[in-house]
Every structure is written in C-alpha cells, then in structure tokens.
Amino acid sequence: MPAAVTDEQNRLDRETLLDAAENLFYENGIQAVGMDQVRAASGLSLKRIYRFFETKEALVVAMLKRRDQRWRGSLAAYVDQVVDPRERVLSIFDWLAEWFAEPGFRGCAWINAHGEFGPSSAAVLAEVRAHKRAFHEQIETWVLAAGATVTEPVYLLAEGAVVTAGINGDPAPARQAREAVAALLGSSHGDVTGV
C-alpha cells in the first residue's frame, strides 16, 4: 500500500501543477493546451491533477487567482518604494515597461483568458473582472494619494499600454502612457486635478 500523501506534498504538487499550467497557458493560449500537456509538464498523473481541480476551467481560475496575487504584489512592492506620491503614480508605468521587456511577455493573462473564455465561462469572467477591479483600486489609491482625480484616465492608459505592448511586442507604450499620465498630473507643484 502506498504511503499517504502529506499536506506538504499536496501543497508542492499543487504549486508545481499551477506553475506548469500557467507557463503553458500564457505561452500557448488556454484552448491550445490539452490536459495531457499539463500532465507532461507538471509530472503529475491526470488522476492527481483532477483531484486538485475537477475541470480545466477550475485550473484556469486557480491559476489566474494566484497570478493576480503575485502580479499585483510585485507592482505594489515596486510602486510603494517610491516616496513622492506623484512619482509613485508614474512608477506604475516604469514597472509596466520592465514587465513588457521580459522575455516571453504575451500581454495580459486576464485579457487573454477573457478572449478565450469570457463569453462562455462565468467563473473565468468573474476572475478576470476581479483582477481588473483590484488593479483599478490599486491605481485609485496611488492617484488619490497624489492629490489627483484622474483615476480613470490613468487606469485606461495602463490597460491600453498593456494591450498595445502585448500586440506589438514593444515596451514603448509604457513610456508613452507615462508621458500622458505626467501631463494629466501636471507639475509636481501645480494643479493635479486633471481634466
């Protein structure tokens, strides 16, 4: 009789599975990746995979949730190290530029998932919307701390930069969006209420 699987082994296997799924889904697209590919990349049996996640959809949702925590956590750590509130808002776009320049950048995982599943999966759509809402709230916090009321334009410029960089494969949209946000914020000593 095989030994019982420990909680730690379950945790490690789940993380291995999510790592494999995230890499495959982000690189190739969710629909293009079969569960046999996930099995091969993770080294786990299909039976074990389906013990963690009963459906591919459940695996996608879990992967997006975990990616959201890591992605927004990385952004917050980067932005929060900047002291000046105005520069903090602008640093969002510096972080985006670094992300866009990473090897294998393929745009926004949530927009990609929405494009593949949004209309047909309520669970994926809910997770995409939760991520976008949380990202918007992060931006709003930083914009309001800078004494500005331009959350919507800053958010839309960030989202637009992500989409454009993902399509073009060029980090330049982050710099262009940063320049537009700097103009919206005005000078560091002037009016920052925007338009």
Describe the fold and architecture.
- It is a single chain.
- The protein is mostly helical.
- Helices cover 73% and strands 0% of the residues.
- It is built from nine helices and no strands.
- The protein has helices at 7-28, 35-42, 46-52, 56-80, 85-100, 109-117, 122-145, 151-168, 172-185.
- Helix 4 (56-80) crosses helix 5 (85-100) and helix 5 runs parallel beside helix 8 (151-168).
- The longest helix is centred in the middle third of the chain and has 25 residues, at 56-80.
- It is elongated.
- The termini are far apart.
- 28% of the residues are buried.
Gist?
With 195 residues, this protein is mostly helical. The protein contains nine helices and no strands.
DSSP summary: helix tally = 9
Mean pLDDT: 92
Report how far the terminal alpha carbons are from each other.
Answer: 70 Å
Helix and strand string, N-terminal first? Answer: HHHHHHHHH
Please give the share of residues in helix.
over 70%
Poorly predicted runs = 188-195
Shape: elongated
Alpha-carbon Rg, integer: 19 Å
Q: Percent of residues in beta strands? A: under 5%
Summarize the main sheet.
none
